[in-house]
Task: structure prediction
Amino acid sequence: MDTENKIFERYLPDFDKLKNYGFIKCGDCWKFEKLFKDNTFRAAITITKDKKVTGTVYDTENDDEFLPLKVENGQGAFVGKIREDYKKILEDIREKCFTKKYYIYPQSNRITNLVTEKYGNKPEFLWEKFKGTGIFRNPKSRKWYLAIMDVEGSKIQKNKKGTVEIALIKLKPQNVEKMIKQEHFYPAWHMNKKYWISVILDDTVSDDKIMQLIDESHQLTAK
Result:
């Protein structure tokens, strides 16, 4: 994963703040440039209409791209310093022009917002090592009734490549058996498969259907 994706992975741009920060709208994109390291380097940042952030660092002496920055490991202290200065530029943009989102998938964030509106719960991120895993507890019992997390797709669906975000939902055993026989519902990942199911949050299952299942889970864990 490149530097820009790492820094902006769970953030959304506020375009009004981008304008105030100094970004210029060019067609469907927003662009910003900043000199650093005593004006010997120039960072060029672009934010596309689909909110993807890309960036390039140029050596101002010849205006060529500073390619050593693309190599993650090694390259010595000087390149490391340039990389750190560039990251600080990106982090400042993130702090002043972006808002944090809980998850990567749009449906994951929609479900989170629906759960928060209905039950007053926000996800708890308990593990530094698993930053993409948020759990929801029923306030009456402190039991989990929902978890949203990112996993390797092949662990949920055979031949599914790349990272996916899933909802883990608790149901009655007879309903678990019923649901996993249906398309787009899977045995639970890292939970008791007798009581939990997995759903990939890629809009293959509607928000309404997922919320119906979450309602059942919330009721089950109220005891």
